[in-house]
Design brief:
- With 165 residues, the protein is α+β, with helices and mostly antiparallel strands.
- It has a single domain, classed as Jelly Rolls (Sandwich).
- 15% of the residues lie in helices and 42% in strands.
- The protein contains 2 helices and 12 strands, in the order αββββββββββββα.
- The strands form 2 sheets. Strands 3, 4, 6, 7, 9, 11 and 12 form a 7-stranded antiparallel β-sheet that branches. Strands 1-2-10-5-8 form a 5-stranded antiparallel β-sheet, covered by helices on one side.
- Strand 11 and strand 12 form a beta hairpin.
- It is globular and about 45 Å long.
- The chain starts with 5 loop residues before the first helix and ends with a helix.
């Protein structure tokens, strides 16, 4: 078993995306996430977010991820500590990666279509939120959507506008 680097995950996501016929994907109903394949090195997910979705701040429990945007747009934001927030928007044709130790959140705009490659294959997701003023990580299964982090996001937004800690 050989874990792929974040950049290798992003390149593999772009290659996998080239095989997806976006025009044939459903454009009504619920958002869907499906596994395209899984082997000893990685797992590939296709995400069709018809309603849009904020993943909340989360980690991938030691798995790097590469993301390729097939349609629509997404934003990606790392979890800042004592610095400015860095929110990046990616459109169809763009890709990005998050290291295995990274904590981030993604906001899929309605209609976003993405391919995600996780290496090693995703075992769990760590979900982050503020509880009684402290950052808390809660483990979650890899095949369930991570919840939003409204209190953590509000604290980061407040800090960005007031400079308070």
């Amino acid at each position: 078993m050989a874990a792929l680097s974040p950049d290798e995950c992003a390149a593999l996501a772009a290659g996998a995306a080239a095989l997806v016929n976006v025009a044939a994907l459903p454009r009504t109903g619920a958002s869907k996430s499906v596994v395209l394949w899984e082997d000893e090195d990685c797992i590939a997910w296709l995400n069709v977010m018809l309603e849009g979705r904020d993943t909340g701040f989360h980690d991938h429990d030691g798995s790097a991820v590469g993301v390729y945007v097939l349609g629509g747009s997404v934003t990606n934001e790392g979890l800042p500590v004592g610095g400015t927030r860095r929110v990046h928007t990616y459109e169809a044709g763009d890709s990005f990666a998050v290291p295995a130790a990274g904590i981030h959140r993604m906001n899929h705009d309605p209609g976003a279509v993405t391919v995600h490659i996780y290496s090693p294959p995703l075992r769990a997701i760590g979900q982050y939120e503020m509880v009684d003023g402290l950052l808390q990580r809660t483990p979650g299964p890899p095949d369930e959507a991570s919840p939003e982090s409204p209190r953590l996001l509000a604290a980061l937004t407040r800090e960005a506008f007031t400079g308070s800690r």
